[in-house]
Amino acid sequence: MPTRSDVERVLLPLGTAALAIVAWSLAVRLTHTTVFPSPLKVAAGLRELAARGVLWRYTGDSLRRVATGYSLALVLGVPAGLALGWIPALASAFNPVIQMARPISPLAWMPLAILWFGVSEAAPDLLIFLGAFFPIVVASMNGVRSVPAMYLQAGRNFGLSTPRLLARVVFPAALPQILVGLRIALGIAWLVVVAAEMIAVDSGLGYLIIDSRNAGKRYDLVVAGMLLIGAIGLVLDVVARRLERLRSVRWGFQGETA
Amino acid sequence: MTPPPKVSIRGLSMRFPTDGSVIEVLSSIDLEVKDGELVCILGPSGCGKSTLLNIVGGFLKATSGAVLIDEQEVAGPDPRRIFVFQERGVFPWLTVEGNVGFGLFRLGAAERAERIAYYVKLVGLSGFENAYPQELSGGMKQRLEVARALAVNPDVLFLDEPFGALDSITRLVMRSELLRIRRAEKKTILFVTHDIDESVQLADRVVVMSTRPATIRRIVEIDMSHPRDLSSPRYIALRDLLLGEIGLAHKI
Ligand SMILES: Nc1ncnc2c1ncn2[C@@H]1O[C@H](COP(=O)(O)OP(=O)(O)OP(=O)(O)O)[C@@H](O)[C@H]1O
Ligand SMILES: [Mg+2]
Predict the structure, then answer these.
(1) Which of A158, A175, A252 faces B102 most closely, judged by CB atoms?
(2) Is B151 among the domain residues?
(3) Which atom of ligand 1 is nearest to the CA of B60?
(4) Global pTM value
(5) What ipTM, to 2 d.p.?
(6) Which of A5, A155, B65, B187 is deepest in the core (most CB within 10 A)?
(7) Is residue A128 part of a domain?
(8) What digits encode the pLDDT tens for the residues B160-213?
(9) What is the span of the domain harbouring residue A135?
(10) Helices (H) and strands (E) in chain B — how many of each?
């Protein structure tokens, strides 16, 4: 027998999605629009994309770009944030630069990225890196700064050297906050890749959308691309949230509903 | 010949600079603690008990005076002397086993596992080896922190109001647990509290502090053997003596 929480977790969202599709379908029919596609047309568009082989290729291209830019942001951002959080002088030196660079939309870097790298893979990778890097750095830095002094004192009391203290106390204590930053950064990376692909390259889901409109006003493919982007974004978020359920970080998410 | 004191506090003073002025927290404290002795430091809130314990533990530097342990001046924290906080000091990212084994990184795997098993059992946490602190009650977390401290086999323990956050029943249970553990593992214990009953139940001697700047008002020997009868005339007399020393009336 399904429990109440099963119903709420699975049936309720599915029901809402079904309702939305019905409403969309009715709206298209009632307004007799010829431009905006119906759900059935969009489904046919998805099949067409799959048959042409671009569905998987473009999805793969977008995911690969996110993987590249985001991995770089992760590998550089977490250590940078840990260092900034641990060494106050470093934070004083770099915080103004970081706080100024952070509100610049990654897309504003586009002209420079194209100037430096031309229309190539490197341009979207750079934008994704920039979009993900700052949230990761700031979350890691704040995570380290908010480690309770008691944990540090206990670590020192047991005779830990500074590297050991960082690895065995500071990092695990900051990890819940770092994971939140990583999840937010992944969402940003996924937003940025679509926008970057509309300008800088000729493949990927962002390119699919802009190309479908420009070459023949194929709004069925535009909407199909949008739905794909949304669905993949959802999957990425669910995967990132999974990490927050690991038992060694669960304590940092107490009082939050799943 | 009397053996040298385990802990010797000599002319200790502590002043904190605060914006503009300086507050004097400790004023020429002298105290000697014998090896294996359990000394309670009793005083009103804010008088400087935690400050004193942090200095003795090597976490803070005194403004003047010195602390000697085993006739050596304390220069910093040391795994031979472990500070136990209220139960919030356990590491929430480690299991019970992980916490108990935290300080044992210098040992080989086999000895480590053996010690963990021994201390988990000693503090009555068998069956919870793989539980995380958030799955434990306050009293269990406190016992876990004591086990983490004992596992590195320190010879001095500093306890700063370790049972302060627990309910009164758990607190009583924890006190007899501490006395039981102390029979198994002879340690020198400095125990900070502002609970008069707690000090009479646990201590060999109670050091009564004045309000800030703290000085030692009086040292009271608790000349009762364990287990102590909480309704005996001697217990009540000692408690009343301490109440008077703290400057409180006997009625409420
Ligand atoms: N780092 C510090 N800087 C400035 N003042 C401090 C500092 N640490 C403690 N104090 C002051 O020293 C005094 C004694 O503090 P302490 O924590 O030692 O008191 P306590 O006796 O442990 O109190 P309680 O019973 O409430 O825990 C307080 O007035 C506090 O404000
Ligand atoms: Mg205190």
Answers:
(1) A158
(2) yes
(3) 1
(4) 0.88
(5) 0.89
(6) A155
(7) yes
(8) 998 888 888 888 888 988 898 888 888 999 999 989 999 999 999 999 998 888
(9) 38-249
(10) 7, 10
